[in-house]
Amino acid sequence: MIQLAPHLFNGLTLGLLFALIALGFTLIVGVMEVLNLAHGSLFALGAYIALSMIDPAWAQETALGGWWLGLPITARYGVALAFAPLAVGLAGMLLERCLRPTYDKAPLYGLLLTFGAALVIEELIRLGWGTGEQHLPVPDGINGAFFFGGLIFSKYKIFAAVFALAAIAAVWVFLERTPYGAIIKAGAHDSEMVRALGYDLARLRMFVFGLGAALAGIAGIVMVPIWGLRPHVGIDVVIPAFLIIVLGGVGSFWGAVVASILVGLAVGITGAYASAWSLMSMYLLLIAVVGFRARGLFGRKSALER
Amino acid sequence: MLTLSDISPRSTAWVTPQMLVLALVMLSAPLWLGPVGLYQYLGIEIAIWMVYALGFNLLFGYTGLHSFGHGAYLGVGGYAFGLFQHHVGTSLVGGLAAAILASALAGMIVAAAVSHRRGIYFALLTIAFGQVFWFSAIKLHWLTGGEDGLLNIPRPALDLGVVQVTLSDNLSFYYFTVAVLGLCVVALWRIVNSPFGRILQAIRQNEMRASFIGYEVWRFKFAAFVLSAMFAGLAGGLFAMAQESAYPDVMSLHQSGLIVMMVLVGGGLVSFWGPVLGVVLYFVARDVLGALTETWLLWYGLMFVAMVMFRPEGLAGVLHRLRRRPPSAAQTRPVTSGGA
After folding, report:
1. How far apart are CA B268 and CA A191, in angstroms?
2. Nearest CA of chain B to the CA of A62: how many Å?
3. Are B139 and A235 an interchain contact pair (Cβ–Cβ within 8 Å)?
């Protein structure tokens, strides 16, 4: 009999991390009904920008760079975690500008455009940062491992899971408890009416896309110390995100969170019995669920079914 | 925006002028491929990918079902061809038949699950199934050789009864793939212009209306999916011969996305010939841009993004626009001669 508890714990942590990845994705799908296949590439972009901020290659030569490298890693990591997502958010806004011609067409075109954008971003990353595997440094305080109840736990995984929980809570508060969230949700529900009430829909969409992209960037910075940083890490990320959204139901916030944890648990538990096949379990889970409930667990009718 | 049904006229011809042009270009290719700086093997790749893309467009363009996991059937075809040669016997026809049957079977399993689905749910399920096939190909080491692939697949000779044609050199194999391509083009042209093809197009335009008329829509979606998978399987068998091996790489999401890009850039949404143009453009871009810069995919990706933004009807749509009479005369329905 295999000890199941650590695998359940691992699965739960993984689920929270998946939820962090899916947050930005579900925001954009919910409001704009665009499946942003570039989400994974924006995720990678965030991590690479953070890498350049924490440990810049040019820094040794200049005085400013020397001062920056002299700062403790915790400070540099904090700054990167705050500012790299902003840069990714700007990239997301640029992508939204490119998406505008596709709004009055079938959802396929938005999907295709973001697929092309993913390819472009990935190639730009190869051009800027090289093709090799890189390592994102993390503060010492959350590095390493500790023992609890006779088992080893990675401190960083705990940090990432707590961070993911905090981010989920923050996005929920923003969407449900602030006037901005109310406008965004109204825009998803009835964009015509929101425009009639005098809100600038174009700016709203740009903002939402920027926010979704920034969330992808944050997820990237938090996740890559666990998953490793390669230019094509994006494609490994966007597929689970995509899958979680459909599993949970397009446009449903809690659906995405629940689906993430389900997927995490499925991967964790299969990892206990057949580790080579653990990543396949999420596809089988999706086929099983969507085979019976076409709109996912908490889905409602959307334009994406056309 | 243009659609497939606008350009392509109802044609009962078995052979059209465009087919003759394609045949002329493909058959004369060995004469000029070298002098323009390309090579014979590229011609083989292009011919095989044309079979794949044209078959894919039956599903993607004509039926409007956006499969993003089509590489799986190409891969299954390749493995089936290789396994047939290794375990059953060295036979060209047998291998290709095995490739087509295996991918038809794989297509049937997936189609049974997806043919009741629409839009993004259809696309996502095809991705999920594609990943399952890809993942299995990597993990079932005893069957597929894992990530190393299935090696030492022979190129069996073509037995025409009176003569045996060896296909081991690239030139004769090229002519063999062109012959297969020719058969596929005629078959697909007949399919899309048959009543069956008309129903597929009706489903794309309005699935609900097609079902109100009384067609059992899912049966047609199922049939289109399986047919399309069979063409992919045939292409996969040919590709396994070309490479003399079969790898899981062609089944990855990345590769499945590339075929969508090729078909769209070429104009598969507006023309029967779109996939052909798209395949040629992709492979020429890969070799010409690839010789100039290592980041050719960046430029190809940028071109694709620009195309989706400004010319979503693709290369075939642009060509059609150029041929059409000036806008003043466009009030009357343009008389299309023989399709774009």
Report:
1. 32
2. 31
3. no
Let me know if residue B336 belongs to a domain.
no
The DSSP bridge partners found for residue A146 are A153
Give the Cα separation of A88 and A211 in Å (integer). 9
Give the domain extent around B258. 4-324
Check CB contact under 8 Å for A126 and B295.
yes
Which residues of chain A neighbour B66 with C-beta distances below 8 Å? 108, 111
Of residues A289 and B250, more confidently modeled: B250
A117 in reach of chain B (CB within 8 A): yes
Does B120 contact A279 at a Cβ distance shorter than 8 Å?
A: no
Separation between Cα atoms, residue B42 and residue B314, nearest integer Å: 23
Nearest CA in chain A to B311: A101
Tell whether B207 is covered by a domain: yes
Predicted pLDDT of residue B339 = 40
Q: Does B260 touch chain A (CB under 8 A)?
A: yes
- Chain A: residue nearest B295 by CA? A123
Among B112, B103, B86, which residue's Cα sits nearest to residue B137?
A: B103
Find, in chain B, the residue whose alpha carbon is nearest to that of A232.
B254
State the DSSP code for B37. T
B60 part of a folded domain: yes
- A287 contacts B119? CB cut-off 8 A: no
Q: Give B121→chain A minimum CA distance, Å.
A: 7
pLDDT one-digit tens code per residue, A239-258: 888 888 888 887 788 888 99
Query: CA end-to-end span of chain A, whole Å?
Result: 48
Residue B203, number of CB atoms within 10 A of its CB: 23
Contact B132 A294 (CB under 8 A): no
For residue B257, the distance in angstroms to the closest alpha carbon of chain A comes to 8
Contact criterion met (CB below 8 Å) for A231 and A131:
yes
H or E stretch including A148? Answer: strand A145-148
Within 8 A by CB and 6+ apart from A303, the residues are: A33, A107
Please check whether residue B312 is in contact with residue A105, taking contact to mean a CB–CB distance below 8 angstroms: yes
Q: Is B150 helix (H, G, I), strand (E, B) or coil?
A: strand
Task: Report pLDDT digits (tens) over A175-200.
Answer: 888 888 888 888 777 778 888 888 88
Q: From CA B25, how far away is CA B21, in angstroms rounded?
A: 6
B330 found inside a domain: no
Joined together, the tokens standing for residue A207 give 């903002």
Closest-CA residue of B relative to A277 is B139
Distance CA B325, CA B340 (A): 14
Give the gap in angstroms from C-alpha A145 to the nearest C-alpha of chain B. Answer: 31
d(CA B317, CA B168): 39
Q: Which of A122-136, B119-133, B147-161, B218-232 has the highest mean pLDDT?
A: B218-232
- Report the number of distinct structural domains present in chain B: 1
Give the residue ranges of DSSP H helices in chain A.
5-32, 39-54, 63-70, 73-99, 107-129, 155-177, 179-189, 191-196, 201-227, 233-248, 253-273, 280-292
Considering only alpha carbons, which residue of chain A is nearest residue B252?
A: A235
Chain B: nearest CA to A295, how far in angstroms? 8
Q: pTM of this prediction?
A: 0.87
**Who's near B116: CB < 8 A, 6+ residues apart?**
A294, B218
What residues in A contact B113, CB-CB < 8 Å? 287, 291
**Which residue among B66, B116, B125 places its CB closest to the CB of A287?**
B125
Closest residue to B119, CB basis, from A112, A276, A304: A304
Instruction: From B153, B7, B25, B164, select the one nearest B77 (Cα to Cα).
Output: B153
